[in-house]
Amino acid sequence: MGDSSKLVQALKPFCENLRQIVESGKEISIITHLDADGITSGSIMAIALARMNAKCTVRTVSDMSQSVIEMMKSEDHDYYVITDLGGGMAANFRKALGDRWVVIDHHQIPEQEILTDDGGRIMNAWKYGLDGGIEVPAGGMAYMVASNLDRKNRDLSALAVVSAVGDRQDQGNKRSFLGLNQEILNMAKSLGLVSFELDLMLTGRETRPLHEALAYTSFPYIDGLTWNSSNCHTILKNAGLNLKDGGRWRVLSEFSQEEKSVVIDAISKYVVTSSKTSAGVIDDLVGYVYTLESEDRRSQLRDAREFSTLLNACGRIGKSGVGVAICMGDRNAMLTAGEQISTEYRTTLRNYISTIFNEKWRVNDDGKITIVNGDGLVAEDMLGAVSSLLSGSPSLPERLLFVKTLSKDSTYKFSSRKSLGCKSKANLGLIMRHCAEAVGGTGGGHAAAAGCRIPHTSLENFTSKLRAAVNDPGFQAA
Ligand code: C5P
Ligand code: C5P
What we know:
Oligomer: single chain
Strand order of the largest sheet: 10-11-12-13-15-14
Low-confidence stretches: none
Number of domains: 3
Bound molecules: cytidine-5'-monophosphate
């Protein structure tokens, strides 16, 4: 793991510059990505700046492109804080915005951008020897800036924990945190804001009846239980568990340790007797869960993973503002709106997935690489969510997965992931950037999750470059 001392050193002049911008009364536009990490990082900066009485607004976009940069230029704000976006695009910002911008990010950036003197404008994890794919997301980087601006912003560590699980950075043993994420988690814990413990990791552990939480859990995928709430009900009931408290269904977080052992035994027995799923899945059912102690019991915001899912839903369904308002503290109308958005998001995703598997022409699979065609079906902002979900599906294991859709502006947008059990060393972030740029598009991301946008006329050229690049040792992770 990297050591954060270089980052801490760089934060001082970076924050000093921001402080001067605020003190000189400049009006600041925060531009961020629309997923959970984007919404949390943008909100952390908005809260930190608002606490300094800065004039600022937050806007989300689905990715950073030349047209977004043109939009920023034409809106002509005094200053721009770009979070969770913009890796590799410093030269474009400089050209369009002069020195009126900073980037706070965690995506891998080209060596050239690390070496270029950008006047200290790029606060990127990789620049300071930290792996932005697993040690710190944009929310954690924004938290580092915020807590350096003012110690009282350390309460924002709880939002940084949400960003880390939202970005799937819980990659340590049993879904623990690594590196700087762990340091931020410890801060949140010492302030009494977040607790963590090893537990059953069911989806909706604070909000759903136990059998439904088990049915909603798609990682690990258990054939016969995932998506099948009546089977789940049967095995839990037969194990002698009390699923109701009076007339009300009990949620997982209300069950005792002994009862939870009974739940695990019941699932293990089912897995062994049905023999469709490997017994190893039981190991994946237990991991660290992160609880936001100041949120109400039975709220979707109490479990950090559920909180991040809700933010993702807001962003992907075009209602990022609701997510930002929730991060900024609204627990009334905006939370109710967020919960409705969450339901709508799950229904949409489920429809996409069933159409993709029903319409066979959409899936082009050679056993190593799968290209899923989402044209005319998948909304571009939902693309990342679809590829994340497909990558955990047992039907497409050990693959490099690429999902594409034709967007409203007639460009193709791609989202790629390494699927369950994938052993390929290919660095998808480097591959997406290289292949997209070679055909006049833009792209980037992480080794295990990346995306790009290309002109629609370049599709064939792009896919043939892609197939070559995945086997090219020059694009493998170190
Ligand atoms: O823009 P950003 O970095 O936040 O997007 C990361 C996306 O990639 C998230 O949707 C996250 O769920 C996904 N991801 C993943 N596996 C990883 C890292 C990230 O699926 N190892
Ligand atoms: O959209 P998706 O969730 O697949 O994005 C995965 C990763 O790829 C994210 O980190 C995102 O910021 C990055 N990406 C990018 N350029 C694009 C699209 C996605 O750098 N045009």
